[in-house]
Amino acid sequence: MLEKKGQAIKSIQAFGLASPHPTVASWQNERPMAKLRQIFETATGADADALLSTPGMTYAVELLRDAGETLRVDDLEQIYAEESWEADRFFTWLELQALQHKIQATVMNADSVDTGS
Q: Does 9 reside within a domain?
């Protein structure tokens, strides 16, 4: 299985495509999600009702970057504004997961605009 994924990535690189095929992108995004889950559970435990305190947007940015996300502070500020969130807030695992998906979608949209797609 890993060999096939490696071949897919080599094919993408050979054709010089800006973004990988969705199945390859999905495989690449599994890792940040698993890392974020590990960080969340280390901080809060495995309780389904656990809340992760993010005291300020800087903390949230660092948390997401530690999980492997590439994100700009401006993108996170925009998401917070759209959701009417305070900079100092608590996240459940599902909310944090949804935030990560929004960040990934924002990054993918920015990449498609940058490449003229």
A: no
Q: Which two tokens stand for residue 67?
A: 């999980």
**Exposed (0-12), middle (13-18) or buried (19+): which is 87, by Cβ within 10 Å?**
middle
Q: Which residues constitute the domain of residue 51?
A: 18-114
For 54, other C-beta atoms within 10 Å of its C-beta total 22
| CA torsion, ordered 79, 80, 85, 87, to nearest 10 deg | 160
Q: List pLDDT tens digits, range 13-64.
A: 444 444 444 444 444 456 778 999 999 999 998 888 899 999 999 999 999 9
Q: How many domains does the chain have?
A: 1
Cα–Cα distance, 28 to 54 (Å, whole number): 26
Q: Please, are residues 24 and 12 in contact by the beta-carbon 8 Å criterion?
A: yes
| DSSP symbol at 20 | -
**Which position has the token pair 């502070």?**
73
Q: What is the pTM of this model?
A: 0.65
